[in-house]
Design brief:
The structure holds 2 protein chains of 2 kinds.
Chain A: E1 17-21, E2 24-28, H1 34-40, E3 47-48, E4 55-56, E5 69-72, E6 75-79, E7 90-92, E8 94-95
Parallel strand pairs in A: 1-7, 3-8
Antiparallel strand pairs in A: 1-2, 3-4, 5-6, 5-7
Chain B: E1 7-10, H1 14-25, E2 30-34, E3 49-50, H2 59-77, E4 89-93, H3 96-111, E5 117-120, H4 124-127, E6 137-141, E7 145-146, H5 149-160, E8 163-166, E9 170-175, E10 181-186, E11 189-192, E12 195-198, H6 204-210, E13 218-227, E14 237-240, H7 242-248, E15 255-261, E16 269-274, H8 285-298, E17 307-317, E18 324-327, E19 334-338, H9 344-360
Parallel strand pairs in B: 1-2, 1-12, 2-8, 4-14, 12-19
Antiparallel strand pairs in B: 3-7, 4-6, 5-6, 9-10, 10-11, 13-16, 13-17, 14-15, 15-16, 18-19
Helix pairs in contact in B: 1-5, 1-9, 2-9
């Protein structure tokens, strides 16, 4: 957990647990958002834009800009900066609108 | 004020933009005024439908067919940003009785020049894979199309080269000897021109009143539900056959019929509700619930899709469901181009053409008598309209 400011903030989080990111195990702490857990794991982008396929991650970090959309436990377009992680959560990077399976 | 224009168009919606566009193409100098922004009224509150499918044979269908042709031509001239999509419409019937009525309606439309293709129940999934199973059948209308209305209005206006003055609410008409129009007054000054076009949409009746004439435009409210962005899940404009009856109805009570279409930007748009409640913008949960239920009945896949917002607009409604287009015999120099109900985006180009023809003395492309703006004077409409509006 080298990349968290927990020590500077004097935080005493509970025990870490695992989530998966595209099937890969990643350690997360209670109270972290999906975005914080991804950042802590060194993942900075997890979505591509609908039109140009450009990379996106956190922009505003406060739920306003909808740039950090990601698929969590099978639900597309969750805001990574707002959704809190829980043990065993499955995070999947998202292409475009994340609903490609519906295309006709 | 630089030089005096030949014509002032009041209203920077799609109809005002089209009037400006065709008048400028005819060589006239045009100034467009609006109290709000471009596409700030009904233009920005619709879905951008360019439909022939919902119109019964008659004057409005004639307008729609001509306008469909003009839209195809405009789509070549204007930037791709208008999102013109000749996607076609698909009208579906849930039961045999509705299908029989739909086929009869389509047969009459075909005689009037509409291209119609009967679609048997087992062929519906070929056109729309996500459509609910168990429908009785449908009719495919290849001439139906769509644009993104706010962008279309903006690009039309820009291409016209007209001077556009926003934030200018017209507070009075300037008249000269014999009552002839000489311009308009706004809160910040006067604008002179020998012709004024009333393209104020749902507020066209108020502008007519400033000119001292009756034009009974009423608002007919509609809501649209907007889903999260999706890949293409709906290919055509798809709607239930009962929509046509709702459009032509005179009822003030809430009516809804399922109308579903995708957009290039991703969201699926879901309509259509109609009710006469004045200019009340309050959210109506019953209307939204019925829209959502209707859409998921047609496309069950939408039940698993999130709606991210909704918007409301006011269709400019005239008692006989026909627009007011052309010169006003009661006030020399005054022309009207409003009251298109839900069909204003589709009918904008032909309306602009007619107005330009009236201004230059050319022969309009269709018979304009059914759209005479003075037809409601004395409380006796011509009653010509079996017309409709989206």
């Amino acid at each position: 957990m080298a990349r968290t400011p927990g020590e500077l903030a004097g935080a005493r989080p509970g025990p870490a647990f695992e989530i998966t990111v595209d099937g890969r195990a990643v350690s997360a702490l209670p109270g972290q958002t999906v975005a914080a857990a991804l950042w802590a794991a060194g993942v900075l982008t997890w979505r591509t834009t609908r039109g140009g396929g450009r990379p996106r991650g956190v922009f505003c970090g406060i739920g306003q800009c909808f740039d950090c959309l990601v698929t969590v436990n099978g639900v597309a377009n969750r805001r990574a900066c707002l959704v809190a992680v829980g043990p065993g959560d499955e995070v999947r990077t998202q292409e475009g609108e994340g609903r490609g399976e519906l295309a006709v | 004020m630089t030089s005096t224009p030949d014509v002032i168009v009041v209203g920077a919606g799609i109809v005002g933009a089209a009037c400006a566009h065709y008048a400028a193409r005819a060589g006239l100098r045009v100034t467009v005024l609006d109290r709000g922004p471009v596409a700030g009224g009904t233009t920005g509150s619709g879905e951008g439908n360019l439909l022939v499918s919902d119109k019964a044979p008659g004057p409005e269908l004639e307008l729609a067919l001509k306008s469909a042709e003009l839209w195809r031509e405009l789509a070549e001239r204007l930037p791709h940003g208008i999102e013109y999509e000749p996607k076609g419409g698909l009208v579906v019937a849930s039961g045999e009785a509705a299908l029989t009525a739909l086929r009869t309606f389509a047969a009459a439309q075909e005689k009037a020049g509409v291209t119609v293709r009967d679609v048997a129940a087992d062929r519906l999934p070929d056109l729309e894979p996500h459509l609910a199973r168990g429908l009785a059948g449908g009719v495919h209308y290849p001439q139906d199309a769509q644009v993104m209305p706010a962008l279309a209005a903006t690009h039309l206006l820009r291409a016209s080269g007209a001077e556009v003055r926003l934030g200018q609410e017209v507070t009075g008409l300037l008249t000269g000897p014999g009552g002839a129009v000489r311009g308009v007054r706004t809160a910040s000054g006067v604008f002179h021109a020998p012709y004024v076009v009333n393209a104020a949409g749902t507020w066209g009746g108020e502008l007519a009143r400033l000119a001292g004439v009756l034009l009974p435009v009423l608002p007919r409210r509609g809501f649209v539900l907007v889903t999260e962005p999706l890949p293409r899940v709906v290919r055509h404009k798809v709607y239930a056959a009962d929509y046509v009856a709702d459009v032509a109805s005179d009822s003030a009570a809430l009516q809804t019929s399922a109308v579903v279409e995708g957009t290039p930007a991703g969201p699926v748009l879901i309509g259509a509700s109609r009710e006469r409640v004045g200019f009340d913008r309050a959210l109506s949960v019953p209307a939204l619930r019925r829209l959502a239920a209707g859409a998921t009945a047609l496309f069950p896949v939408l039940a698993g899709v999130r709606v991210i917002r909704t918007y409301a607009g006011f269709r400019p409604y005239l008692p006989d469901h026909l627009p007011a287009i052309g010169t006003d015999a009661r006030v020399p120099g005054l022309l009207h181009a409003c009251g298109h109900e839900g069909a204003g985006i589709g009918l904008a180009p032909v309306t602009g053409r007619i107005i330009a023809d009236c201004l230059t003395g050319a022969q309009p492309p269709v018979d304009v008598r059914p759209f005479d703006p003075a037809r409601f004077e004395g409380g006796t409409g011509t009653g010509a309209g079996a017309g409709a509006g989206a």
